[in-house]
Amino acid sequence: MTAETPAMDPAAQEHLEESGHDTQRGGMDTALLGMMLFIASEVMFFAALFAAYFNARATLPVFPPEGTEFIDPIGLPLFVTILLITSSFTMQWATGRIRAGDRTGLNRGIAITLIIGIVFLFLQLYDYSVLILEDDFGIDSGVYGTLFYTLTGFHGAHVLGGVIGLSVILARGLQGQFSRKHHVAVEAVHYYWHFVDVVWVLLFLVIYVIK
Amino acid sequence: MATTTYPRPATTYVSRRSKVLEWLTTTDHKKIGVMYIITSFGFFLFGGVLALGIRTELAVPGLQFVDQATYNQLFGMHAIMMIFLFVMPMTVGLANYVVPLQLGAADMAFPRINALSFWMLIAGALLIVSAFLFGGAPTGWTLYVPLSVQVAATGVDLLLLGLVVLGFSSILGAINFIVTIFKMRAPGMSLMRMPMFSWTTLVTAVLLMFSIPVIAAGLIMIFIDRNYGGGFFDPAQGGSPILWQHIFWFFGHPEVYILILPAFGIISEIVPVFSRKPLFGYKAFVIATASIGALGFTVWAHHMFTTGAVFLPFFAFFTFLIAVPTGVKFFNWLATMWGGQLRFDTPMLFAVGFIALFLIGGLDGAFLAVVPFDFMVQDTYWVVSHIHYVLVAGAVFGIFAALFYWFPKMTGRKLNERLGKVQFWILFIGTNVAFWPQHMLGLDGMIRRIPDYSGNAGWTELNFISTVGAFMIAFSVLPFLWNVFVTLRKPADAGDDPWDAYSLEWATTSPPPTWNFDSLPDVRSERPFFDAKHPELAPPAPETQPEASA
After folding, report:
1. Can you give the pTM of this predicted structure?
2. ipTM of the predicted structure?
């Protein structure tokens, strides 16, 4: 029991403790622990995709295989990387605001993060269209094309998941549902968003930068 | 004892919804558990019929019963049903029912996600069964490339999607169990006082959480290769077929522990209760369980020795190493029984049968870790025999032990002992008759996944014996179904604690109320309910209550 918690009927408190319902007994919040474990399983999902990439690089004499070329990291890829890293900072700032009890700050931070996420998705679609239509580089363009579209595509799907999560947070935030003490959903989405961001940075380094 | 009971409404709560809707929309872990158990038992029967098809075809040389294409579907679907739609959901169902009760919790940590997991299982199962209607999946459960990429049948796509859906269901379930075990334990129920079935459920959940995402990624890669011209596994495009084997077995080996660890937990619940002793070496048992889980991720390539693409000494060494914690478990079970007052009720019979037969499965598996021997028997009936000694004699015996043990808790009725013993002996003998000859067939070079063999090969008698055994196993299910049917028509007179057991699930009524416990005994050891029944033997209460409530 923390000091700020208002006095509770002792019998009710005893019931909570006896039945294991009491989430105040210390440790991580139940929902947050669930989110952390979910992210851990997501890490394994991307690990398998990355393993496929490294397997191809390790076994092929020339990589990428003949007929395909590395995509230039300078330009759009570098720009969206900077964009996504920025969004991690705005997300962190938004979470910090609600931890301090500032609801308006939370909504502003979430809105900026949400906009960056949506812009990222549109830029990714634009990038795909250029690669497919102008460079004739598709998912069937050898193993490099398959890996490129699978890795970036599943990352994009996760950004979309984050965008949906942020939208829910924003909608709830605008209704004033979060406070300094009650904002576990914000914490959960903020962990998830950082995870999506870290995956992109690794993707950028592995797929675009390392030759 | 802190057993304050709280006033409840005098009249019992009557739901306005119908009974059917009540079950379909429930978030009660007990009802969800029962639905898991019933569903998976249905698939056990389904998969068993497929197995009879396989054994009927193999009873004598020649193709009499099914053609080759049908045969390919039979063995693939048999494995997929038994692994993904029977053993996994069955153990999840048992854990769903029992683990929150053993922890002294009111429900799982995320009851609605729990219901979601169950209904995703149904969705995935429908996709997998519907694959039959669209050309089936003649790929075996291992879905090896290039076959699984090149087979044109839509059934393979449905199978892939179904497995991904099942995987998502498993991941959500695993997260739910881990959070429940870490956050929902009753006061005093420290991790090192947790019943062994809860421990094995925890380790199983961790294995699921780290292995299922990997196979999900692999299944998606096959899907992309099949449908969008991808090149993951196509050497012509720079891909690698061996990559699939790595991904599959990185999941596949932890998967076999996912199938067997819950059974280890079940046996560890039953053996102490029916020996009237505490589990011997509780801490060693916990460490052994965790070690098996960790080592499970280091041995995947022992399924790939003959590819020539893996570092043999590493994987052979770690495979042998797993025998050590498994041996610790066997030692602990035997030491628990040693000098105990043994009672051979049906759950204990199945538990002892498990210990005897799983040993055979473990030993012939250790043979497979010997690289030269493995080269000789790769893809032969030796491997078929091994997998069935660990999964039939292991997982199935464990599941029946659990069903007999916890049936009184779920229904308030004890299953008939005489029918149970008849079932046990038919199953025990049938298992050995079916699978022992397969060792000899394997050593003699009979390859698995073939529908026919030459009458001159000298395999006819052993195959016929094996088929007889398979029908004995199938027949042993009939007394069980009859047993459940007649028992459910009898009055609920088993009482709350028919086995004089140790753990908290027996400290509530049978069946438990929706909220599980009106009050809980103090938890001061790994046998809290035993302590409550025998206060003179219980560890003393702590002298000062932590933070004595004012």
Report:
1. 0.92
2. 0.91
